[in-house]
Design goal:
Radius of gyration: 17 Å
Structural class: alpha/beta
CATH superfamily: Ribonuclease H-like superfamily/Ribonuclease H
Strand content: 15-25%
Strand order of the largest sheet: 4-3-2-5-6
Distance between the termini: 22 Å
Number of helices: 9
CATH class: Alpha Beta
CATH architecture: 2-Layer Sandwich
CATH topology: Nucleotidyltransferase, domain 5
Number of strands: 7
Order of helices and strands: EEEEHHHEHEHHHEHH
Largest sheet: 5 strands, mixed
Shape: globular
Length: 206
């Protein structure tokens, strides 16, 4: 089975909003090794703030649910430990990385992950003909099924993980190799979509 040369942890947060001052309400982190999800960290999070009604409507996460959840002071250190120094990925990765950093800084912690890869950005580069790059649209186009409820952390992380695995398979087939070096993902992310085919041809010819 095609895979990446290093483990990657797929991360997804549900939050009270999109600004730097908002807080996380749920987290899911799925470790991908050798093309498979091998381990997962999933938890609701009590950050001691009120959840807006529109967030409950969107995610199904209620105030009562987070009130019973472990506090961020327990969840965030455990999450950082779970991720370790592996590479990190997310769909719209800058959003999740921003919240990971903000929650870590509140506890005077520093995440140790090595590398950040965005499945949204990679999908734009590798699958340029899609109508849009929302996770649900990409999943439907590629035949990836949601196993739970969209806009819940574990379900979104699971679909994003299978999208990343699909990307590994796509690159393995295109480049005729079983193992994909994460440096290739970095190069693809920094290349405009129209130039990615030439990038992959040069990679094959190495």
């Amino acid at each position: 089975m095609s895979s990446f040369n290093r483990p990657i942890v797929m991360l997804d947060f549900e939050t009270t909003g999109i600004s730097y001052s908002d807080r996380i309400t749920e987290v899911a982190a799925l470790r991908i090794v050798d093309g498979k999800i091998t381990d997962r960290f999933v938890s609701l999070v009590n950050c001691g703030v009120r959840i807006p009604a529109f967030i409950t409507q969107l995610t199904g996460i209620s105030q009562a649910m987070v009130n019973k959840a472990p506090p961020a002071s327990e969840v965030v250190p455990a999450l950082i430990e779970f991720i370790g120094d592996h590479a990190l990925s997310a769909h719209n990765a800058s959003f999740d990385a921003k919240f990971l950093l903000a929650e870590s800084q509140r506890l005077n912690l520093i995440p140790r992950h090595q590398g950040l890869f965005c499945t949204l950005k990679l999908s734009r580069r590798l699958f340029p003909d899609m109508s849009n790059y929302k996770l649900a649209t990409i999943a439907q186009s590629l035949g990836i099924r949601f196993q739970g409820t969209a806009h819940r952390a574990e379900a979104d992380a699971e679909v994003s993980a299978h999208l990343l695995i699909h990307i590994a398979q796509h690159l393995a087939k295109t480049c005729k190799m079983q193992q994909i070096d994460l440096t290739l993902l970095d190069k693809i992310s920094k290349t405009v979509a129209a130039q990615v085919p030439d990038l992959l041809i040069k990679h094959i010819q190495k």
